[in-house]
Amino acid sequence: MATDYSHLLAEYPEKICQDQFYRICRISKRKATWLLENGYIPCEDTGKKTHRFKIRITDVIEYLIRLEDSPESLLTPPAIFSSGIKYRPKPKIVEPIDSDKFMKMLKKRWSSSPDTLTVDDAVKLTGYCKTTVAECIAKKKLFGVWYYNKYLIPKDYLIEYMATKAYRITQKSNKHMSLIRKFQEEQLQA
What we know:
Blueprint: H1 6-11, E1 15-16, H2 18-25, H3 29-37, E2 44-45, E3 53-56, H4 57-69, H5 99-109, E4 116-118, H6 119-126, H7 130-138, E5 145-147, E6 150-154, H8 155-163, H9 174-189
Antiparallel strand pairs: 1-3, 2-3, 4-6, 5-6
């Protein structure tokens, strides 16, 4: 059953401004401006900085009814009103199924690196920041030894940390995700 918007006719004048429009529709100012500028709601653009748009209340009611009846016809680009960051969908990544094979790939790829790594070395190999690597060592998720005012990490432990699902790295670095993708591509080709 459609919502009755007749009370808006009694509450508001025949023409309203953008400020009233976004409050009625319960949307952000940014989204209201975008909807008006892109013709989703008919309006008169005065070009002024304040009270730029004049919108008929009947057009607002018509928009709200259309939004209820067929919201897919009024879709806006995803995430353009959430923050200053442009929307970039993150690629879905499937964990490597065989962690032993992934570990072998990392050992082969990192064979030229020393067997004992500093935090800086681990950062270069994994793409995680120094703070993250140090926190993982402090929380005993990653094995590291404090030696002469720096942590030393055995390369095999770092490889195990990167490859094993047991460690559950929820927010992977771009480099880590790239390594997983390369592993998956190699598995498809094999």
